[in-house]
Amino acid sequence: MLGWLPDGYGGVSSYAKDIDDVFYFIYYLTAFIFLLVTVLMVWFLKKYRVQPGDEARRATYTHGNNLLELTWTIIPTIVFIGIWFVSKTTWADIKHQSPPPDVQIRLTAKQFSWVFLYPGTDGQFDTSDDKTDKEMHVPVNKVVNVFLRSDDVIHSFFVPSFRIKQDAVPGREIRVWFKATKPGRYEIPCAELCGPGHSGMVGWVNVHSEADYQQWERKLRQ
Fold first, then answer.
1. Tens digit of each residue's pLDDT (9 = 90 or more) over 60-110
2. In the 8-state DSSP scheme, what is residue 112?
3. Residue 25 preceded by cis peptide, ω within 30
């Protein structure tokens, strides 16, 4: 397998494997088509290269071959429908069938940093007991809803290990969700060119065990 994917095949989120499956399907299909076209091109170059005596031959005009034209139209159509079906199912599972959240966080992007807002015990944002942090902290194996905002330009919330990527757009609040499956510390690079400090706009997701998360939360509320 292609071990260069962040945290390997399947990543560290509940839907990372589904996204990787779509990626591999397209990757291997593209590789197969590339090799097929390359082999055919080399074969045609050899078969139709100039031979002694070709100078006396004249080219012939043809109207084409209906069977061949139908074949190279129908096969790509079937392939693209297959890609659409596979990706549509995965997209619907992720974007339109979000499970009930265990944790909610509001993330505000601005040049060139991330600000994470945690609601208080009432579970509501914009109340007096809200708390902010420069990093994201979540419990492992819990559904996390992230509400994305931007204070200035378009940024992009991207956690490669989770296979999650969503733009943060000024004037809008966009919800995304994930469920991390392995404790650890994971990078959040901004994936949208947002200005001269774009390359340094890096945040972190800290995925804790349940006990460690409870300890961090108590410390945050102090």
1. 777 778 898 899 899 989 988 888 887 877 888 788 888 999 999 999 999
2. T
3. no
Token readout for 72 is 């190279």
Say which amino acid occupies 190: C
Per DSSP, what are the bridge partners of residue 159? Answer: 164
Which secondary structure element, helix H or strand E, spans residue 25, and what is its range?
helix 16-47
> H or E element: which one contains 130?
none
CATH code for 103-221? 2.60.40.420
Domain ranges for the chain: 16-95, 103-221
Q: For 100, what's the count of Cα atoms within 13 Å in the CB-facing half-sphere?
A: 0
Q: What is the pLDDT of residues 58-71, one digit of tens each?
A: 777 777 788 988 99
List residues bridging with 174 in a β-sheet.
148
Retrieve residue 80's tokens.
């693209």
Is 144 in contact with 114 (CB distance < 8 Å)? no
Could you name the CATH architecture of 16-95? Orthogonal Bundle (1.10)
